[in-house]
Every structure is written in C-alpha cells, then in structure tokens.
Amino acid sequence: MSTSPFCTRLAQRVASRGSQIVLGLDPDPARVDGGAVGARDFCADVIAKAAEHCVAAKPQLACFERFGADGWQAFEEVSQAAADAGLLVIADAKRGDVDATTRHYAAAFLRDPIDALTVNPMLGTDSVTPFLEAAAHGGRGLFVLVRTSNPGAAELEDLEMADGRPWHEAVADRVRQWGRTTTVPGQGSSIGAVVGATVPERIHRLRELMPDQPFLLPGVGAQGGDPAELGPAFAGRAHGALVSASRSVIYADDPAQAARDLRNMVWNIWEEHR
Amino acid sequence: MSTSPFCTRLAQRVASRGSQIVLGLDPDPARVDGGAVGARDFCADVIAKAAEHCVAAKPQLACFERFGADGWQAFEEVSQAAADAGLLVIADAKRGDVDATTRHYAAAFLRDPIDALTVNPMLGTDSVTPFLEAAAHGGRGLFVLVRTSNPGAAELEDLEMADGRPWHEAVADRVRQWGRTTTVPGQGSSIGAVVGATVPERIHRLRELMPDQPFLLPGVGAQGGDPAELGPAFAGRAHGALVSASRSVIYADDPAQAARDLRNMVWNIWEEHR
Fold this sequence. Notes:
Two copies of one chain form a homodimer.
Chain A: H1 6-17, E1 21-25, H2 35-50, E2 56-59, H3 61-65, H4 68-84, E3 88-95, H5 99-109, E4 116-119, H6 125-138, E5 141-147, H7 154-157, H8 167-179, E6 191-195, H9 203-209, E7 215-217, E8 241-245, H10 247-250, H11 255-273
Parallel strand pairs in A: 1-2, 1-8, 2-3, 3-4, 4-5, 5-6, 6-7, 7-8
C-alpha cells in the first residue's frame, strides 16, 4: 500500500467508495465497558456496521493509551480491522515535538496499517521535518492542526498578529510550504490540514491559503458543526475535504444509518460545489 | 504519593536530593539494541547509575511508542523503576487535544507512578481543563510548552502579535492563569512551563510573566544550551527551575559522572542566584 503517494490513494479511495466520511473511533469507558478489550470489540463492531459508508477510520490514541500497553495492542488491532474493511487509517495522535523526537513518532505511526497521522505544528518546520520525510518516502499523509474545532481554540490560534492576520493563518502558510514536495498535479498534496467544521466562516480564507491541502473537518455532530456550510472546503476535488464524525455515529442507535445519512448529506454538498 | 500537591512534593524532593536535574530517558534504537526490552533495560541501567544525582526522570513517550504495545509496557516499567529510585516521574508526551480527548490523556498519564506530564497549549484553556482538574485533585503537575528549545521554535512561537509581543508570551499569560488554583504560598504552582535553555535571553521576561511556575528547561548538552545562563530561571526557589538533560547524560561514558557534574554546576548557579 505504500508505493503510491497518500494523496493518490486518498483520491482513489474517495472515488471508489463514494464517501468523504471519516469514522472517528473514540471509545469512551463511560459508555463502553470492558477496558481495552471492550474498546477494541466496540470499535470492531462499529467498523463492521458503518465502514461501507466511510472512506477512512480515525482512531483517537487517547482513548487507547488510557489502558496502557493493552490499549496500544487494541489500537493496533482496531487499525488493522479498519484497513481490512477497506478504510484508510488516520491515527489521531496530534503529535509534535523536537525533531530528534518526532523521528521516533514517525516510526511509531507512519507505518502499516496506518496511512496518515494528525500533527501539532506549534514547534515549527524543523519539528515536523521527520514527519514530512516519512510522508514523502513512505507514501503517508499528515493532517496538521491549523484551526481546531473546540470553543477555546480562538484564544491562542486566532490571536491577531502584527500583520493583522490571526496566528493560525501563519500556520496555514507553513502547511502549504510543507506540502509542496508531496503535491501531485490534479490530486493535491499528501500534507493536509485540520480545520474545525465549527468555524465555516474561516474555511474560504483557509482554502485560499492552502489550495492543495486535503482538509480534515472535525466537529460536525456532537460539536455542533453544520455539514451544509462546508461546501467551500472541497476546492473542486471530491477528496478535497473529509468530514469526521465520532460520537454522533459510533453511539447512534444505528451506526450504519447515521454514517449513511452523513455520507449522503456531505456527498450532495460536494456535488453542489464541484 | 498523591495526597500532597505536586509543587509541595517537588520542593521537598529538590531539597532532600540536593538536585534540580531531570534525567531525560530517550532511548534511541540507533544506539540501543534489543527493541522495547533493550530500551527498558538501558533506561533501568541509566537510572541505577545516575538517579542519585537527579530529582526526576523524564521518559520520552515517542521512544517507547515506536515499539507499540511492548513499548508502552517498557514505558510503564521504566517509570516504576524511576519512582522506586526516588525520582519524580515526568511523562514527556506533549499531549494536547480537545477537552473530550484530553480527559482520556489525563487518565492515561496523571496516575501512579507518574507525577507530571508535558502538555501542548495550542488548543487553549478548554483543551487543558481536564489536565488542570486532574492536577488539582490528584496532586499531579503539568509542564506546559511555552517556548521550546529547537531552532525552528521561533517560526511560530515567536511570531509578533498586534500588541508587539511574541505569541508565546500570550501562552505564558495563560499558563500563569491556569496555575492559580494550584499555587501554594512560598512553593509556587503545580502548573509549570517548558522554556528552552537555548533561549536564555527570554528567561527573565518569562519569569516576570510566570512568577509562580516551575520551569522545566530542556536543551542543555546536546542542544547547546549553557547552564551558566540559567540563573534567572530559579526565581528565588531551589525548585523554581529543573534542568533536563538526556543525550549528554544517558550516552556518556560515565552517566553517573555526567549527572553529578551537571547537578553541581546547576546547584552552584542556583546558589549564586538565591
């Protein structure tokens, strides 16, 4: 799976599955019994039910790490189950550290069956360089946090800079640069951006700054983002934007129905904006 | 160990051990053979040799996660070995995510035998609130990234804001606020700050902005920071600043000697600035 660039595989997978939905796997022990094994079995069940309506799965590392080594084993098994179901696997770990350390995180996460990793950009270019190298040489993708979906994100990410722009637009500039070496004409880059679906008013501007980046849009469903407002995110590519939903799908009475409904809604929005 | 606040235990431990040195445990497979077990045994050996000259150990999660579930098991065993040797344990994981997720990271890391966690602040107050609650109620500490030690940190962390200050000073303002509820008179706060020893020219200003925070200073040794310039970091408290060294100690021909030398150098600097 690692021979073609992530952006190529993403384009192919979105087209073949007819979905831009990312299945967020955040098993919460307040709702899922049985520790690490319970979390694994719950995720496997959700994958079996909802995968056909999705293009990727996004296991949340925190929900597995809370169970220690057993949790990591469960994370690996859940990732393999998602890959076996035909889904791309995006490890939602939001890692960021100095370069000597991100080299190790790259080894931890940018390997089969994982296709892509979420990354925190605060420490700057040198800190993400090992991730970029692993993405370029191993056919992996990154989704870099640019403007997150939580209410408090405005506090530091939106701070006004001396040039009048919010701080996160400087992050967007960097992400565009970071993505250049992995950009394939017509398919965009393998280096994507996380942009909260809760701030649709920022999406148009961030698309201008990052024309080649696939956008990963969390925050629909439980966090209140409205899929109908996400049209500008696609940038004319079916795989230009992925919509991630976790709680609103995995805890639904019928996860398959919830995923199908979201898929159809998002695909229609893309069709209107293609 | 969880009944007293982290800042109290930190003050006691620095006084009783006569050291402000944090033993950074970053086992690199390029230098340490044997996978997860090799990393565990290497760290246990370094702890046995150097612990008496240190006050805390700081295992780097990336170096363990690269070995998957076996690596997590090794991380837990290394953390216990450090605690058994009388060291405080600072999990260097630099986690940061939306609040529903940091709640799980708090469960993963703010528990015995771990005393404190490094945290990424980019997502703002709501994102760190579960960490702050766990710190306040469980007697744990946090070290929040304010200005990191890597060369590229200036790129985004030092960006000039509309008020003329670098962005990281807004982070410092927040960290001071976050630390208020865990501040003990005369002992400072349980919510500390990571400030690179590679930028001593910023330490005086960051001390003004964060008078109560214990500073965790990485970047001496292999990254080039000079301990002699760190005096202003202590703020009149022996436990006001911790100096972290990893490669320059753990790969030294004589780790005990390297740790002892660094301890004496740093303690003398503190004595000159008390």
